[in-house]
Amino acid sequence: MSQPSEQELLQTILQPLLVDFDYWFSRSKELLKKERIEFLSPVEQAQLLDRVKQAQQEVSIAKLLFQAVEGQAGIEPSQMVAWHKIVTECWHVSMQLRQSKQTKLEE
Q: What is the DSSP string of 24-91?
């Protein structure tokens, strides 16, 4: 069995990853727009929303470029790490929000 080419690996791994980042940034953006998150100050919430919007724009551009060059280029790993940190931060905010809502229901 032959080894996949670098381009095949990029398309197999990177393309779905970009889709996932876009999905999680969209969900995070909606949460941050619609909910008042009490454990974040309004400024912190607005700053996180701004970072999510910026990251989502970067992912959209990366997806367009990746498609334009037909998967012949990758993305700087440090950029992907930065996106992952924002997604992780949003997951933590979402979990904490769910827990605080649950606690209020139990009171």
A: HHHHHHHHHHH---TTS-HHHHHHHHHHHHHHHHHHHHHHHHHHHTTT-----HHHHHHHHHHHHHHH
Q: Which domain holds residue 67?
A: 6-106
Q: What is the pTM of this model?
A: 0.87
Separation between Cα atoms, residue 20 and residue 26, nearest integer Å: 10
Check: CB of residue 29 under 8 Å from CB of residue 53: yes
Structural contact between residues 62 and 18, judged by C-beta atoms closer than 8 angstroms: yes
Number of domains in the chain: 1
pLDDT, one tens digit per residue, over 16-71 is 999 999 999 999 999 999 999 999 999 999 999 999 999 999 999 999 988 888 77
Identify whether 25 is part of a domain: yes
* Per-residue pLDDT tens over the stretch 67-98: 888 777 778 889 999 999 999 999 999 999 99
Residue 1 falls inside a structural domain: no
